[in-house]
Amino acid sequence: MKVELKQHFRIESARSLPGLPEGHPCRRLHGHSFKISLVLRGEIDAKIGWLRDYHEIARTVDPVLKTLDHHVLNEVPGLENPTSEHLAIYLYENIKTLIPQLVQVQVSETPDTECSYPIAH
Ligand SMILES: [Zn+2]
Fold this sequence. Notes:
binds zinc ion; alpha+beta; single chain; Tetrahydropterin Synthase, Chain A
């Protein structure tokens, strides 16, 4: 039987968005408490009864998140323009190789916003 899991993480990071016009507030260096949600999909392990251990997922993604937490995202190779869109793609590409069941990454830069990658067709 197939299920979908979602696990949430938080990082505190600084960024500026160089693609924006002078005077836009997000062009200035500022901080966010990003909420990152990982969506996994797959078959329930018949013996254990779950898709994957939440603790093990957390341990697996920790090294990736550590490169972002309390860092200036613009200084991370590949995140020179660290919009939430680029951050979602970056996280998906870096975590998918570690967790094959990953189907989507969701990035919220505020409680009222969310960016998802990849999107369902
Ligand atoms: Zn921002």
